[in-house]
TrEMBL record:
PANTHER family: DNA MISMATCH REPAIR PROTEIN MSH1, MITOCHONDRIAL, DNA MISMATCH REPAIR PROTEIN MUTS FAMILY MEMBER. HAMAP family: MutS. Belongs to the DNA mismatch repair MutS family. The lineage of its organism: Archaea, Methanobacteriati, Methanobacteriota, Stenosarchaea group, Halobacteria. It comes from Haloplanus ruber. InterPro entries: AAA+_ATPase, DNA_mismatch_repair_MutS, DNA_mismatch_repair_MutS-lik_N, DNA_mismatch_repair_MutS/MSH, DNA_mismatch_repair_MutS_C, DNA_mismatch_repair_MutS_clamp, DNA_mismatch_repair_MutS_core, DNA_mismatch_repair_MutS_N. PROSITE patterns: DNA_MISMATCH_REPAIR_2. This protein is involved in the repair of mismatches in DNA. It is possible that it carries out the mismatch recognition step. This protein has a weak ATPase activity. This is DNA mismatch repair protein MutS. Residues 698-714 form the DNA mismatch repair proteins mutS family domain. GO terms for molecular function: ATP binding; damaged DNA binding. One of its GO terms (biological process) is mismatch repair.
Amino acid sequence: MDADAVTGPPDGMVDAEAELTPMLRQYFECCADYEDALLLFQNGDFYQTYCEAAEETARVCELTLTQREDSTGTYPMAGIPVDDAAAYVERLLDAGYRVAIAEQVESPAEATGLVDRAVTQVVTPGTVLDDELLGAGTTNYVAAVAREGSTRAVAAVDASTGECRVTSPPDDPGLIAELDRLAPAELLVGPDASVDPEALSVDPMVTDHEAARLDDDAATERLEAYVATPSAVVESTAERRACGAALAYAEWTQGDDGPLEYVTRVRRYDPRDALALDATAIRSLELFENRGAGASETLFSVVDETACALGRRELDGWLRRPLVDRDRIAARHDAVGELAAEALTRETIREALREVYDLERLAGRISRERADARDLRSLAATLDAVPAVVDALEGCESARLRTLGERIDPRTDVRDLIERAIRADPPVEVTDGGVIREGFDDELDDLRATEREGREWVADLEAQERERTGIDSLSVGHNQVHGYYIEVTDPNLDRVPDDYRRRQTLKNAERFYTPELKEREDEIIGAAERADALEYERFREVRSSVAAETGRIQALADALAELDALAALATVAVERDYVRPAVREPGGEIEIQAGRHPVVEATQERFVPNDAALPPGSVTLVTGPNMSGKSTYMRQVALIVVLAQAGGFVPADAARLPVIDRVFTRVGASDDIAGGQSTFMREMTELTEILHEATDESLILLDEVGRGTSTADGRAIARATVEFVHDEVGATTLFATHYHDLTELAGERDRVRNLHFAAERSGGKSEEEASPGGDVTFLHRVAEGPASSSYGVEVARMAGVPDPVVGRARALVDDADDAGTQVTLSDAVEAGDAANGAENGTADADAPATDERHANAAAGVTSETLATLRAVDLATTTPIEALNLLAELKDRIEES
């Protein structure tokens, strides 16, 4: 979006700018101060845009474009209602605009000339504050990146909750991965292009950040306004600069000259303190997003039994950053276990938490002086629910629950203040009156009593005057222009008393007032105006008193959020029959008895559990038919690990798990056309990262590596990958493949194992016993050893491929099986020997003739190639050397 194109006066008005009307001049002056934003300019009940900005606003928001005419000429105008602005602002944000809101900062009635206006807020995707534009229980970060030498840092601020977090990823891939985990809505990029946004899996709005805001001295000064000792929070110049930039930008968007008082939690974290999940793993495991038919079927949707927005945000963070500290994991498991066992305690807590509003966002609005009376009542309702939570936690035994019980402060002083000051059901607008409770302020009560008594006197006046004058049609009324009046129709004017004073003449009537009515009117209006002003003043005082407790309210919010997340995991454990996993130190075996995929289980009537026994550093080759459950099995192992380290119980009969430092996945196929990557290139890019980054404490899931290229190349890459992971990386690995010859590696490498998914042909025969061609039933049950077939033709038939195609394919498979034509590397060598022997006149006359495929393969295998192969020492050849050799041999064959 090029905001500059829509902020200035139209070309036809540039020369006449000095002659602009005062209001247009004010509009364009505001535009000039916020050149990178589209300005919404308040004019009464509407936010107006003019000229090219009006044309763009009308297009994006689907508004009727109108015209305005003044001394400068005619130009386009488009407006949106102030009361319904959020919906239109959302459209503008979605279209890539930043939106500056210029409000009337003085009352039109009090203005001596042009109403003063000022930009009070700049709305950007990363600094949205309106609840209507924010998802409940979600985070909304603006992130800034800074570099200093070899150190890189990223800071993220959620302007709606007052959270600020900062970290230093170890390298550039780590920086990209951390930004993907944060998923910022907006990314601040400095002049040094600290990060390439195109490398991210998320798609934030990119904002060029001024160099001055990334300056170390400015950042230090900025950070000192939020924390007493910046060095206790940040550990490098890069972290300080990133924090300063993000906070400065948040301040600018809120129109504040000083620090945001509600940003009280500036915290540093270390990515190494969490199980690392990059964007590929988060996407492949479908933790938060399912790109299939059931878009809402994710791990988060299954375990999200939270009662309030606070807990939902907390649980989201736990799944994005599972723990790697065994003691902290055990502490969460202790708490979840106790809440699962104590149904009354759990349900009492959950019932109370359902009454809890989003304290973090409430505290933010109150601190920014943008909270209305209903926000204060929402805070009071939340504080009303807290004592029940404290009572429920009394007697809990787990250390985590006891600590939370000590941290949860009901803030009865704040609750009592709001209860005494604010009416139970106040109006939305404080200036409408009726906000402050009677009895809270004596002066206000006196003014309201005077106003009320005056109105009651006026209400009785009509009956009194009818009796006094004998005019039955006489009425008493009020309007904003003329105030109170007594109306008499023309036929009755001869009976009007002498003390009536004419106020207004109508077509068929006259309006009058009396000195006493005028006096009462002055009393009523004066009392009402003074009462409204005093009520607003008292409301602001109450709000300010509550704002002074922002830090404690946020601390309460933190405690309630953690408790809600724990209670949610306990609820899931009880309702879905999850068990507590035994978590041990890194490097142990993954042992799962009757494990289940948490999402698939929740969406299907029947699910077949499977065991998993994965020794440390093992590479388990998983073979079997398509649709048999290989990918589900691998994902369920990873999801059980993630859920366990997040603090949850797991879907299994029993589980013993080591602490995993990182989960890597290469699952599924997709192009990245915009990035210039084919499916195979993307697969190889992801594989490269895995082979470089994985450690012997990682878990790797590889699904069909090498399937995006030729069979020979793909088989070679798959084999070399297995060997490299086994020999060099040492990570516990699940490797699903249709290259059945890879299963031979189990006899060559001590930590390579074979598992397969069983199937039955029609008649209940096993896959080994039955003949091809019958109906196949996939048992979804894992078993030791390699599979005998991939059943590709059967899957094609089940998918609805036309019978002639299926029949022809089955015949070809049968012919190939009868002729033994599944050519492997050893087949090629054997056939090559035969072919070379015949060429040299030394072939065995009694040897059977090779089939056509063997002959074709043998034709390109020269004696030189065979000699090279025989000279290879497999025991000392590295995977990379093997790949290079394979490429060389392939080139020789193709050239021969």
